[in-house]
Amino acid sequence: MTTDELKNLKSQITVDARGTSCPGPILAAKKSIGEIKSGEIMEVLSSDEGTKNDIPKWCQKMDFEYLGCVDEDGIYRLFIKK
Amino acid sequence: MSLELEQQVKELESRINKLSNRQAKDQLSMVVFSGDMDKILAAMIIATGATAMDTKVKLFFTFWAISALRDPAKNVKEKNFISKMFGMMLPKGRNKLKLSNMNMAGMGPAMIKSIMKKNKVASLDDLFKIAAEQGVEINICEMSMNLMGFKKEEMIDYPGLNVCGVATFLADAEESKVQLFI
């Protein structure tokens, strides 16, 4: 997905993991993914650059679809489709 | 169906069951051997990270790592001289552990802790709490506990904390996809 497409996505839930370090963002993602239904979208906010690599791997393992990441001044917005 | 055929089917069924039971599970088994603060930190980050990926985690604490499970508020009386010595010389709990490098007579751990706070890295206290919430299993090696004169009564309150032997670790490791030694 392109950056513009990602920015226009409506996510059902936003998880704010800014300010946490590894493994904070994936723990936060795990905690919240249960709150949405299959096919819905979750957005994870992280200030930890490693999350950009970790969330795609996490999605692969958990069998979710990783849609992409938008980098906004060191804050990463990662989109996941359950 | 003839009786013979039925017998064969039953046999095959039990064989398949045995085979599928032996297949590696989505599980991580870790020997936590080192009692260094940095290594315990690494072990706990990997363990809690694995739970975020829906992997079952089983930790086997042995030798020096057992110090990390000591509860500073708990004391056990009636220990023999050597046990008392061990108890005095080894760190009493996860917040008294040393660094494997740059310990600098205790300055290192204090420095690391302040940098960790600044970088919002979870502390060992946080990580043990998360591990308990996420159902990370902790087993303590009975042999090393006896060797160092530790008793289960002086260990931290942790859900399902278990004292066991090497067979438990091996059985867990055998059914795990990932095994680590830290």
Describe the structure.
The complex is a heterodimer of chains A (82) and B (182). Chain A is built from 3 helices and 4 strands; from the N terminus they run H-E-H-E-H-E-E. Chain A has helices at 3-7, 24-33, 51-62; strands spanning 13-16, 41-46, 65-72, 75-81. The radius of gyration of chain A is 11 Å and the shape is globular. In chain A, strand 3 (65-72) and strand 4 (75-81) form a beta hairpin. Chain A is α+β, with helices and mostly antiparallel strands. Chain B is an alpha/beta fold and 182 residues long. Chain B has a single domain (28-181), classed as 3-Layer(aba) Sandwich (Hypothetical Protein Ychn, Chain: A). Helices cover 45% and strands 15% of the residues of chain B. Chain B is built from 7 helices and 5 strands. Chain B has helices at 3-22, 37-52, 81-89, 107-118, 124-133, 142-147, 166-174, and strands at residues 25-32, 56-61, 137-141, 162-164, 176-181. Chain B has a 5-stranded parallel beta sheet, with helices on both faces. In chain B, strand 1 (25-32), helix 2 and strand 2 (56-61) form a beta-alpha-beta unit. The model of chain B has no long low-confidence stretch (mean pLDDT 92). Chains A and B meet through helix 2 and helix 3 of A and helix 2 of B.
The CATH level-2 architecture of chain A is identified as: 2-Layer Sandwich
**Strand neighbour order, sheet with most strands of chain B:** 4-3-2-1-5
Estimate the strand proportion of chain A.
25-35%
**Count of domains of chain A:** 1
Structural class of chain A: alpha+beta
Please outline the major beta sheet of chain A. Answer: 4 strands, mixed
- Helical proportion of chain B, percent range: 40-55%
Task: Give the chain pair forming the largest contact, with residue counts.
Answer: A-B, 13 and 13 residues
- Helix content percent band of chain A: 25-40%
